[in-house]
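Dear colleague,

Thank you for sharing your sequence with our group. We've completed the structure prediction you requested, and as agreed, I am returning the results in plain text so they can be pasted directly into your records. Please verify that the sequence below matches your submission; if there's any discrepancy, let me know and we will rerun it promptly.
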Amino acid sequence: MDNTVFSHIPVLFEETVRSLNICSDGLYVDCTAGGGGHSGAIAGLLTTGKLVAIDRDPQAISVLNEKFSQYNNVYIINNNFFFIKSILQGLQIPNADGILADLGVSSHQLDDTSRGFSFHRDAPLDMRMSMSGMSAADAVNTLTQKELCRILTEYGEEKFAPRIASAIVRERESSPIKTTLELANIVSSAYPAAARRDSHPARKTFQALRIYVNGELDGLEKAVLDMFECLKPGGRLSIITFHSLEDRAVKRALSPLAQGCTCPKNFPVCVCGNKPKAKLFKPVTPSAEELAENPRARSAKLRTAEKL
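Please find the predicted structure tokens below.
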């Protein structure tokens, strides 16, 4: 594997590191360490502090082990951050000063053709972040037309989902769909000509299949609450999202934490006793300069919550 594919600068890089309000003696968790961009910046600000770098991708873990081989205060864990509670318990870490999650597919996964995430180049239809379990090829060749339609509608917000699902089922009857370009061409053929001008017809289908195969939204709200629960008072949780489905899930999880008294407005005094558990910061989006350098950042949004 070429480790140079992991050397990109993450989206909203400086804003994200700054949002964690890092103390040199603190304990921090990078839930989606990838190529170690955020992790490297955090580790560089620590003296007696510690960093837990988590990733579900075995290729990323290989790179992280190499990158942090000289650090005795960095713990590298190959797991899904959805299990953050058990991960920290296993390390005998009660709570953290800051937790970061950079959701969605990483640049190295998109750029490594063999991983099958991109519809621009031909490769085996894979899309598995953990490199295990059901692949995208398994999904398109075995799921029912109804289920495929549901996945494309729910995870891709694809208005032509019925046409695409029908085309997939029709094509796989003659031979299995094995590669990214095969699927991209099937989706394009099912798209009305007038709708092809806005963006690549396969974009939403590939997003939907990737989310489904990796279970990216299954339990995301619970994972956000678990991450928040793992914070010390005064600790911060920062999450980067890349599309509206992720962002809505994160917002749904965080918003109630900032809610205080729920008594009717005409009550003279509070009787519910509810107090806010979190301070939510205004969401941050990429600057014009960053968008010019990295078009992939266009839909990114950083949300930060501080535990009260």
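Summary note from our side: The chain is about 40% helix and 15% strand.

Kind regards,
the structure core
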